[in-house]
Amino acid sequence: MDYQSLKDEFNTAFGYQGERVYFSPGRINLIGEHTDYNGGNVFPCAISMGTYGVYAPRDDNQVRVYSANLPDAGIITYQIDQLAFDKNDSWVKFPKGVMYEMAKQGKTIDHGFDLFVHGDLPDASGLSSSASIELLIGNILNQEFNWGVDQLTLVKNGQAVENDYLGLNTGIMDQFAIGMGKKDQAVLLDTNTLKYEYVPVELGDNVVVIMNTNKRRELTDSKYNERRAECEKALALIQKGGVDVKTLGDLSQEEFDKDAYLINDDTLIKRARHAVIENQRTLRAKKALTEGQLDEFGKLVNASHVSLHYDYEVTGKELDTLAETAWKQPGVLGARMTGAGFGGCAIAIVNKANVDDFIKNVGDVYKKEIGYAASFYVANIADGPRQITA
Ligand code: GAF
């Protein structure tokens, strides 16, 4: 999106010229799924699709926000000190939530503003449109109100919006991937210690194709919180049996095999097994990518999907159809769901020469099996949040 047309859109919404344009990306996760609330590793990257914001200050105490993605919601207005959660709030819960959680750290604002947002991330698609907007607003307010906080503070604040303000027990992966995003790099993050490392995504002749099921994934409606609770139960049973670990991410596969009997429940064993092995698999995938062993990397990506299907049970027919069809196409190194699952997006690593046929073939099978079309985008791995115009 070019910034002049964004400013024009601001003008159409608010009737005057907006001032500064900002951007915050979405993310894909290469591997390491449902490990971030289990103290494990994740391996995501920010992408060039994301959320744009046009900002202008006001000299009163009103905040007015307008989203081009939800025009029916119109201009929503609130006062700078009226930030309490309201379950009837539409997307305004994000600016309010970011301000509410930052206010807890003494970071407030002393005048209102108008904000126009327009995202090119498909909504509720598992590409983190929520974290994208949380980091967009955090970065805008940090800049405009001279909060002087670092990106990690904004990342943690975004997670606090999800956990404390909205009541979703998500991990830190999405906000971290977005806030710390770097062009052409994935970030290997140990969610136990928050130690991280950038890894160049060098895929040779291959690109990452994002495959959108076009089935909405609503975290609130999904079994996300239930999966997290199951992992916590499994961990508690292992700890009760005398194993000295703080998270499932502390266990090696061998240790887990030895201790799994302590869980004594088929479903909980499957959930924990995914968390433990996916964590190890993520480290192996990072090693394979770093060493240029792309076939091995692709196989680990496939294995991740299989585990999310059988052990974690978060894929569903739409994501399975995309991944399983992708596996059969020529020039494909690997494919898996990305994000929380239950709908949303999958990714495939595809040879550039095969991309057009890949999209056609997978698209045709998906439409036949599911009854409506999937969408496809080639991912560009991109930088984190930034101000676009001065
Ligand atoms: C969602 C959550 F927000 C992340 O924290 C992560 O748990 C992911 O699902 C699954 O890996 O995107």
TrEMBL record:
Its EC number is 2.7.1.6. Residues 286-367 form the GHMP kinase C-terminal domain. Keywords: ATP-binding, Carbohydrate metabolism, Cytoplasm, Galactose metabolism, Kinase, Magnesium, Metal-binding, Nucleotide-binding, Transferase. PROSITE patterns: GALACTOKINASE, GHMP_KINASES_ATP. The active site is at 174 (proton acceptor). Residues 9-57 form the Galactokinase N-terminal domain. Its main location: cytoplasm. It comes from the Bacteria. The keyword Cytoplasm applies. Pathway: Carbohydrate metabolism; galactose metabolism. It is found in: Cytoplasm. The record marks 27 as: Transition state stabilizer. ATP binds at residues 67, 124-130. This is Galactokinase.
